[in-house]
Amino acid sequence: MLTGRESLVRLIGRRRRSPLPASLAALLSPSSPAPAQANVQGSGSAEAARDEAGSSSGGGAEWVPCPVCGESIRGSDYCVNAHLVDTVIVGRKFHENIELQEGARIIVERDPQNAKDHDAIKVLYAASEFEEMLGYLPRELAKILAPLFDKHYVECEGFVVRLLEQQLDSVPIQITIQKCETDDRSSDDLWENFIDAVKKGNFQRPNSARYQRNFNVMITDVMANHTHVFMAGYIDMLSCTDDPSEYDIKEILEVLSVPEMKEILKELPKAIRVAQVMDEALDDNNMEMVTRCIDLSENRLCTMSKIEIATSSQPLPLFFSRFSASWVYSKILTLGVSVYERDRRYTDAIRILKLLLRTVASDRRRGYWTLRLSVDLEHVGRPNESLSIAEGGVIDPWVRAGSKFALQRRVLRLSKPPRRWKVPSYADSVKRNIKESSWRLQYYADEGGGWQGTHSEGGVWMTIFGLLMWDVMFSDMEDVFQSKFQTAPLDLETDDFYKLRKDIIESQLKKIQDGMAEEMLISSWELHQGTSCRGVNWDRHSLADLRAIVACIGGNLLASLVRHLAVDYRSWSSGIPDLLLWRFLDERGGGEAKLVEVKGPRDQLSEQQRAWILVLMDFGFDVEVCKVSPVAKRR
Asked: Where is this region: Disordered (predicted)?
C-alpha cells in the first residue's frame, strides 16, 4: 500500500460515500463526463436487483415462498423442513492450504468448549480432509441455534455466497438449517423461536447489538450533559436543513464575526471531501483525478496556511491541528508524494515535499518529508542539495526516531570528501555493531536456557505502558478529553503529554525504579480489567506473564523504556523488536530479559527498528538480531 493511504482511509472513514458540494464537483469533475447508466427506479427496483443477483450467481430459478416462514427464496433452494439463513462468517481464521472460493461448501458445528461464548458455533471448510475452521457464526444467530444443536434437533450446512474485496471482512454465506427426523416434539418451541428470530433479525450485521448499546450510552451522556441539543430551536433548524451534516456548521458560522474564521471552518469539510475523491480515484486507478486532487490540495494548503497564521492570536495545542483543513491537505499531499515517486515523477514529488516543509512547521511528519526529499534529490542527480537537506533534517527538533537515524546514515554516506571533510559527531553511534545470532527460535526454549517468550511486535510493551501509566493517561487535564468514548487523551502523541504531566509521570517512574512495578501492574489490572485503553490488549497477555516480564526486566531498565514512550509516544510506538524473552535465574525471583528482532534470509532492519535497537542498547537491555534460515531438505 502507498505510504499515507491507510492514514487517509482512517481520516475519511464512512464519509467516503457522501455527495460532493457543487463547488468541489465543478473543480474535480472531468470536462465532459460520460453519461451514467440509468438505474432502475420505482417499485420494481428491488425485484430487478434481486433478479440480477440471481442471474449473476448462476441461479435463474423463479422465486417461491419458503416452506417454513413464507419469505421469498429461489426455487432451486426449496427444501421441506428446512430454513435458509443469510449470514456471515465472523472471527475469520486463515490457513495456508485453503483458498476460499465463491460457492465453497461449509459445515457448521457446535463449539461448547469455547471459553468466551458457551453458545459458539464454528464454521468448517467441508472440502478439506481435516475440516479446518474458517471462523464462527455471529453471536446473535449462535445464541438461538445452539439449543437446537445441543438437542440434536437440527443439522446445518451451507456455502460461501461471495468473497469481498477486503480479505479481512466478514464472509457472506448462506446456510440451510435442516430439521432432523425425530418423534421428540419437545424442541418444537425452540424451532418456532428460531423461525421468529430469523424473521425479525438481520444476521448479516453481527455487531448491531453492540452498536445499539454504545448508542444508548452516548444518548444517556448527551441527556445528562448536553440537553440543549434537544431544545426546540435545534430540532427546528435541523428539520429545515437539506443536508443535516451542514447544520452545525451553518449555526456556528452565524456566531463568527471574523470572515477569515468562517473560511477556516468551512474549508475543513471541503478538505475531507477532496480526500474522499482522492481515495476513490486511487481505487479506480483514475490518475487524472488523482493529479487534480493533488494540485487542488497544493493550492489550498498555501492559501489556508496563510489565513490560519493571520487569524491565530495565540498558538493552539498541537492535538487540535488535526481538525484544520491544512492538516487534511497535508495528508493528501503526503499520499501524492508516494504516487509521484511510484511513477518516477521525482520533480513533482520534490516540489510538493518542499511545500510541505515550508508550510508545516511543527509536525512529526517532517522527518518522513525530509528523508524523502533527500532521497528524491539524489534520484534527479543533485547530491549536494540532497546532503544539505539531510544535514538540516538531523538538527530539526521535529525529526526523530527512525527518520533521524536514516538521515544521519545518509549524511555519513554522502559527506565523503570533497563534499565534506569533517566527520559528524554522531558517526560512531550510528556505526555501532548490533549483535546477531543464527539460532532457531526453539533454541531459546531448549538448549538456550529455558527462556519464556512472547512474539508481539511491541504489543506487550504498549500493554505494560498503559497499565503502569493508567492514572497518568486518564488524569484530569484541560481539553484532552472531549468524549467519554476516548481510549486515550488527545495529546498522548504530542510533546505536551510529558510536559504537562511531568511531575506525576516522574513520580510513577520513581516507583518503577524502586521495584514497585509489579504491584502497580496488579493494582491497575484488577481495577480496570476490560476497560478500553490505547495500546492495552487484555486478551493477548495474561497478568502472570506481565508480572514475570516486569520482574525479570528490573526497575531501572523498565523505567527508562517507559519514560522514553511517555516523552514521545508517537515516534517510538512502532519498531520495537519482535520477540521478548524472560527467565528466572533463581528461586528468590532474580531474572533477566532479552529482546530479539527476528529476520528472515533476505530481510533487512528498517531504520525505525535499527533506531530502537540502539536506544535499547543505550539503556542497557540485552538486544540481538536473530537470523532465521530455512532448514535444507534432504534429497
From this structure: 28-59
529 alpha carbon, distance to own chain's centre: 22
Residue 548 to residue 580: CA distance in whole angstroms: 12
60 has a pLDDT exceeding 50: no
pTM of the model: 0.60
Total count of residues recorded for the chain: 635
C-alpha grid cell for residue 61? 430459478
Grid coordinates given for 247: 447544520
**N- to C-terminal Cα separation, the chain:** 39
d(CA 586, CA 575): 32
Q: What are the φ/ψ torsions at residue 380 (nearest 5 degrees)? A: -95, 15
Coil, helix or strand for 263?
Answer: helix
Q: CB neighbours of 180 closer than 8 A, spacing ≥ 6?
A: 152, 153, 154, 155
Please, which residues bridge with residue 178 across strands?
A: 82, 155
Contact 457/576 with Cβ under 8 angstroms?
yes
Q: Which residue has the cell 519482535?
A: 578
Identify the burial level of 32 via C-beta atoms within 10 angstroms of its C-beta, where 0-12 means exposed, 13-18 middle and 19 or more buried: exposed
Q: What is the largest CA-CA distance in the chain?
A: 96
What is the C-alpha to C-alpha distance for residues 281 and 275, in angstroms, rounded to an integer?
10
Q: How far apart are CA 174 and CA 277, in angstroms?
A: 34
Q: Give the span between the Cα atoms of 275 and 336, in whole angstroms.
A: 11
Q: Which amino acid is at 72?
A: S
The CA R_g of the chain, rounded to the nearest whole Å, is: 29
Pull the grid cell for residue 560.
527508562
Q: Which three cell numbers stand for residue 610?
A: 535499527
570 within 8 A of 610, measured Cβ to Cβ:
no
Q: Where are the domains of the chain?
A: 79-205, 253-430, 436-480+488-627
* CA atoms within a 13 Å half-sphere pointing along the CA-CB vector of 399: 22
H/E element, 364: none
Per-residue H/E/C for 12-41? HHHHHHCCCCHHHHHHHCCCCCCCCCCCCC
Residue 15 neighbours by CB under 8 Å, 6+ apart: 272, 276
376-413 pLDDT per residue, tens:
999 999 999 999 999 999 999 999 898 998 999 999 88
Contact between 252 and 265 (Cβ < 8 Å): yes
401-414 helix and 383-394 helix, angle to the nearest 10 degrees: 140
Beta strands in 451-570 (DSSP E): 452-455
Rounded CA separation 407/387 (Å) = 9
Which residue(s) pair with 110 in the sheet?
121
pLDDT tens, position by position, 519-562: 999 999 999 998 999 999 998 889 999 999 999 999 999 999 99
Return the closest-CA partner of residue 542 out of 250, 138, 115. Answer: 115
Q: Which CATH class is domain 79-205?
A: alpha beta
Element (H, E) at 309: helix 287-311
Contact 160, 92 (CB under 8 A): no
Q: Which three cell numbers stand for residue 151?
A: 438437542
- Under 8 Å between Cβ of 285 and 245: no
